[in-house]
Amino acid sequence: MDLLVTGVGEVDADGFDFRDELGRRGYKYLPSASQYVLAAAKRALADAGEDALTAAGPERRGAAVGTNSAAVSLHHAMDRTVVGAGGAGALSPVTAPYFSINLFGSRLATEHDLKGFNLTVTTPRVAALEALQTGVRAVAAGRASRLLAGATEEALPEGEPGADTSEAGAVALLLEPAAAVAERGGRAYGRVGVVTFFLPPGPAAPADGAGAAAEALRDALAALGHRPGAPLTVTAVLDGSPVGEAVGEAVAEALGDGIERVPAGAGCLAPLARVAAALRHPTEHAHAVVTAAAEGNTAVCLVTPGGSGGAEASSR
User: Shortest CA distance to 280 belongs to which of 193, 187, 194?
Assistant: First the structure.
């Protein structure tokens, strides 16, 4: 199925007030990361336009959300309660169910009647792009015809590894079939495709690690339909780990000029935010977002601007 991104929504934790974004009733006790993704999805649906989602029945709507740290702060608070004087009986019945990371996206499915599927992905650093990849695969398999794909993160507690590079906020994309966009005269930002692969941390450290990563990167771009030599700009969201350095060298080796390197945060939010930026502010050619985790998980997302339906995506 030819899917187009028709809605983009982003939320930054700074200055966020759930009452302004979601309403004053029914959201107060939700964990922050759940509030963020609900607000981002609401913005994405408003951006896509009326009926973009609801034109499909509930059983034809699906969601896929990536996160690395949505529950960490909440888990810390629960641990303090359980080991303290209050014991497990003092846990709040409102927030206790959120010990399960899957629940952070569940309210999204409930709110928008998404009965096709509801997936949560937690792979380090690549979870957001992997959620987009997995959601698109599920749509291609016939499980839905509309997809809300996104990422949400909450700031890590002080002292937690990676707390100094915490991410907090959410990004959501709405994808729908090109034929449906054309039928309703909708606006399309473009197409996105994701390939993931694994680069073992051990072999990544030696001198030939970048060569292996470059070959995998070229294969990924070819699988996404990019032709060698065609214009391409790249954003690489990477850390300083052996895998991050190998992928950074690989990007330079395989793609040459036009590369922006962005320091990776502790979660998976930045790569999808860069995809959203490439959709909102398109160039005349494709743009790739590449990211990798120290553990070896690597993802490549190719953003192709424009599409069918109504007016092409505009910068805003």
Answer: 187
